[in-house]
């Protein structure tokens, strides 16, 4: 019988033994073997939490103070033998619950769908090549490469570890990252002391390593303690909480008001207590915006969906709101504003400049014959290099700049595979902090240290330079000129140097690279700006949003690219060093007037965000590295790169860009502004239409005349509108000018002064018109039932026309598109109109609601009133928008 778990003591045995036990090797599995193992072991994922059963979600809709109140009202009505009222109240309750249930389901589906879009990937060796696969596809025996910023994708027995520190707090609670190594430890070592293991779900804080997968999915340590990874999106945001709190307060206020009116009606107006009770129940039902939270949730969810379709995946719902208020976007350069498609354009050595032809990674047809130093330089460039360039389609696995170096070397006639055959003994991986990468190679002439990195950095490490006839004294001024020359053209510049190491050297450290290097030369890469970024920056400028570039690249390169992008004609540039020298007192001012920050480190990003926030700006900030997490968290909107970004950055961010593209940020801002507009429209429509109905009845009770609508009629209006007009504003497309206005002020509430005015003005207007219609009809000698039917129809028609008015908050609704409406608007109106016809003309409805058929002239009058309402509200919008100056 075989051992049930051959890897249970992986930490106590050498890596080679574990590889053998798993029937794998240091070059990984074959794709076919991996597929077979996947079928056997199942996906590397933890079972999802069971979704809440539909019936419980439905019942959850009834867990709401207003619904209880309505149920109490229905019971009271039934006890008083007002069966019709009881039935209609129940219908309102059920319609609301069904609408809430369906919308909540839709919102949850939208969030679930986008969750799948940011499923993490891992780098593994398959068929001897490094490839990126979905974490769920990992199988025991896979060899996985990990580096700073990664979440360890499965339980791994480490095969190599270089300065590897892993934060295991999620598993052990230990907040200090543990240092990893490959040597076996005692079999009974505690989880946190098993140094040669990397546990699924823990975070690589720094360094690099590789390991063989020993357990996946539920078999991993984290799977065994069955903790769910990552945070689960919740369907709530500060805004939603604000709305819920508002709805609760409003409900209390409505109940208190209803109680007062009840007492008033019974004591001073001689109502029977049953009639008064029915009236106030209807009033409360009519007044309270019970559907509002559900509609706003769906508005946000639609925003999330629209953003996802524009390649911006929302990880935390509040970002949808904040995005719309963004007043400044701080963006990385490489890959976000530029394409991150690198091509080596020039190679400069002490001997001369070689211009390299071609664009992209395909080296065919652009061969050239390099001189001796150029050849040495390119050889160093492909050895001190972790990328792979696949000849099938010329695709790069790894860093695009390193891929471009391989392409250039092939153009120069070098064979990367053969050159790399020379064993690499050790490496110091690239880090944005120190801006270079170093490798140690066993070459025929002895161990050689190769370094590539930011040129200024390498110049300080070098004492001499490679010349045609051997090493010469380093001419730093010459190189600075060459670097500036290339950078001014917008080229990204990288330098190369080497050092012969003493025989027997097998490892390198930072001390080895500090001095005594021989400078080989530099390469200049072109990385063209993304054309859509140019357009997006122009759009930002129109929308009053400032754009800042924060890059690790050279100041001249960054400034040249900023000009090409139209970010500024003559950009102000500060480097990380400049920032360090500015005294605290002047820091905020200096940052505020700078468009380009070059040679910055992640700490600078954090200081820049804070400085901008201290000026009241709403800052969106992009990032990709493990050290970007603090600034992404600090920013009002943290945005991580989906392709290039580390897991650490993605987890710290609120938004992940699927395509790393600046234009997607701007698209998301556009959608964010639309969501905010739509929420305001929903509120702006709901409150006054409720208010209008309620005021009409309150006036009747206070001034002591017959009710212009019976309680059951008020309930009818509520019933017909809750699932129709009240919902469609959530689906509104953007208004044409959304990106032509300034960002809204930070912290501006939803109910701006204009909106408050609107709520009062429209409520009073609806009340006045309803009463006018009521008394006019009575004055004509019509029956009171007919007058009431006219009032109900007038109110509903006015609400339809008001909907057209509020669909455009920032411009007139009298445009062809505005008057045509949208599919959802027209469908909702069709339902409402059909409902009103039934209410007015169907005998059974006349029986239930006490309504009466109306004549054609009555209909004409009602529709004319609706049209006039729209005209008045359009004039009012036109005149007053400027006065309130809301956004
Ligand atoms: P951005 O911050 O806009 O993405 P960036 O890509 O230039 O810009 P970093 O990745 O932090 O920023 O790189 C900073 C500098 O480090 C580069 O300008 C380059 O000089 C050097 N560098 C980048 N990648 C490597 C690498 N793989 N090997 C050696 N040096 C590198």
Automatic annotation (TrEMBL):
Its main location: membrane. Gene3D superfamilies: Calcium-transporting ATPase, cytoplasmic domain N, Calcium-transporting ATPase, cytoplasmic transduction domain A, Calcium-transporting ATPase, transmembrane domain, HAD superfamily/HAD-like. Residues 9-82 form the Cation-transporting P-type ATPase N-terminal domain. It is found in: Endomembrane system. InterPro entries: ATPase_P-typ_cation-transptr_C, ATPase_P-typ_cation-transptr_N, ATPase_P-typ_cyto_dom_N, ATPase_P-typ_P_site, ATPase_P-typ_TM_dom_sf, ATPase_P-typ_transduc_dom_A_sf, ATPase_P-type_domA, Cation_transp_ATPase_P-type. SMART domains: Cation_ATPase_N (SM00831). SUPFAM superfamilies: Calcium ATPase, transduction domain A, Calcium ATPase, transmembrane domain M, HAD-like, Metal cation-transporting ATPase, ATP-binding domain N. This is Plasma-membrane calcium-translocating P-type ATPase. It comes from Paracoccus alcaliphilus.
């Amino acid at each position: 019988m075989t051992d049930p778990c051959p890897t249970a003591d992986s930490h106590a045995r050498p890596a080679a033994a574990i590889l053998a036990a798993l029937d794998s090797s240091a070059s990984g599995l074959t794709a076919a073997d991996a597929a077979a193992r996947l079928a056997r072991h199942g996906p590397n994922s933890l079972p999802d939490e069971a979704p809440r059963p539909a019936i419980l979600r439905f019942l959850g809709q009834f867990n709401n103070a207003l619904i209880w109140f309505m149920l109490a009202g229905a019971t009271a009505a039934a006890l008083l033998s007002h069966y019709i009222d009881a039935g209609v109240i129940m219908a309102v309750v059920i319609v609301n619950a069904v609408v809430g249930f369906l919308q909540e389901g839709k919102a949850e589906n939208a969030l679930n769908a986008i969750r799948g879009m940011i499923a993490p990937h891992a780098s593994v060796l398959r068929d001897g090549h490094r490839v990126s696969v979905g974490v769920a596809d990992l199988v025991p025996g896979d060899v996985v490469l990990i580096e700073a910023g990664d979440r360890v994708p499965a339980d791994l027995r480490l095969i190599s570890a270089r300065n590897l520190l892993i934060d295991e707090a999620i598993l052990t609670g230990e907040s200090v990252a543990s240092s990893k190594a490959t040597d076996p430890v005692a079999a009974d070592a505690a989880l946190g002391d098993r140094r040669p293991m990397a546990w699924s779900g823990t975070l690589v804080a720094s360094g690099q390593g590789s390991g063989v997968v020993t357990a996946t999915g539920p078999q991993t340590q984290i799977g065994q303690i069955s903790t769910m990874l990552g945070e689960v999106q919740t369907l709530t945001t500060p805004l939603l909480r604000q709305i819920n709190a508002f709805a609760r307060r409003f409900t209390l206020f409505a109940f208190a008001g209803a109680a007062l009116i009840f007492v008033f009606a019974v004591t001073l107006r001689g109502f029977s207590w049953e009639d008064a009770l029915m009236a106030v129940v209807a009033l409360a039902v009519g007044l309270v915006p019970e559907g509002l939270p559900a509609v706003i949730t769906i508005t946000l969810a639609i925003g999330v969906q629209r953003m996802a379709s524009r390649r911006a995946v929302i990880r935390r719902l509040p970002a949808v709101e904040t995005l719309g208020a963004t007043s400044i976007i701080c963006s990385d350069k490489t890959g976000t504003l530029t394409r991150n498609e690198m091509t080596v354009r020039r190679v400069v050595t002490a001997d001369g400049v070689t211009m390299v032809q071609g664009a992209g990674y395909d080296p065919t047809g652009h061969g050239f014959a390099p001189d001796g130093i150029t050849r040495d330089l390119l050889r160093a460039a492909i050895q001190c290099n972790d990328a792979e360039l696949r000849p099938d389609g010329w695709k790069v696995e790894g860093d695009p700049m390193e891929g471009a170096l391989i392409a250039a070397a092939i153009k120069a006639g070098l064979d990367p595979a053969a050159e790399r055959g020379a064993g690499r003994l050790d490496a110091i991986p690239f880090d944005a902090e120190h801006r270079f990468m170093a490798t140690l190679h066993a070459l025929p002439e002895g161990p050689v240290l190769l370094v590539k990195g930011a040129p200024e950095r390498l110049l300080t490490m070098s004492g001499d330079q490679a010349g045609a006839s051997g090493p010469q004294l380093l001419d730093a001024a010459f190189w600075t000129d060459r670097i500036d020359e290339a950078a001014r053209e917008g080229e990204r510049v990288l330098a190369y140097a080497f050092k012969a190491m003493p025989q027997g050297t097998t490892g390198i450290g930072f001390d080895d690279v500090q001095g005594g290097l021989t400078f080989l030369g530099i390469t200049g890469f072109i990385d063209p700006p993304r054309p859509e970024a140019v357009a997006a920056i122009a759009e930002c400028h129109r929308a009053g949003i400032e754009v800042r570039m924060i890059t690790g690249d050279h100041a001249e390169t960054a400034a040249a690219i900023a000009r090409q992008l139209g970010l500024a004609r003559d950009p102000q540039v500060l480097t990380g060093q400049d920032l360090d020298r500015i005294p605290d007192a002047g820091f905020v001012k200096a940052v505020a007037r700078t468009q380009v920050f070059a040679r910055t480190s992640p700490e600078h990003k954090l200081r820049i965000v804070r400085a901008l926030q201290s000026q009241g700006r709403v800052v969106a900030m992009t990032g990709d590295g493990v050290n970007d997490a603090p600034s992404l968290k600090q920013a009002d909107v943290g945005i991580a790169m989906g392709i290039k970004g580390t897991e650490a950055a993605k987890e710290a961010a609120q938004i992940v860009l699927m395509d790393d593209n600046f234009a997607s940020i701007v698209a998301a801002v556009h959608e964010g502004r639309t969501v905010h507009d739509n929420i305001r429209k929903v509120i702006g429509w709901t409150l006054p239409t409720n208010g209008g109905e309620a005021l009409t009845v309150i006036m009747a009770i206070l001034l002591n005349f017959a009710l212009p609508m019976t309680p059951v009629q008020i309930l009818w209006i509520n019933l017909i509108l809750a699932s129709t007009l009240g919902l469609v504003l959530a689906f509104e497309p953007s208004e044409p000018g959304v990106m032509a206005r300034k960002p809204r002020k930070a912290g501006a509430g939803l109910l701006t002064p204009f909106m408050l005015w609107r709520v009062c003005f429209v409520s009073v207007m609806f009340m006045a018109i309803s009463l006018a219609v009521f008394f006019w009809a009575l004055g004509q000698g019509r029956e009171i039932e007919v007058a009431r039917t006219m009032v109900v129809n007038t109110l509903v028609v006015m609400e339809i026309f008001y909907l057209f008015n509020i669909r455009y908050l920032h411009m007139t609704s009298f445009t062809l598109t505005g008057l045509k409406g949208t599919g959802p608007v027209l469908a909702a109106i069709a339902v409402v109109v059909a409902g009103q016809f039934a209410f007015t003309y169907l005998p059974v409805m006349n029986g239930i609601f006490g309504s009466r058929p109306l004549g054609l002239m009555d209909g004409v009058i009602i529709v004319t009133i609706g049209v006039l309402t729209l005209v008045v509200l359009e004039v009012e919008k036109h005149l007053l928008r400027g006065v309130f100056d809301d956004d």
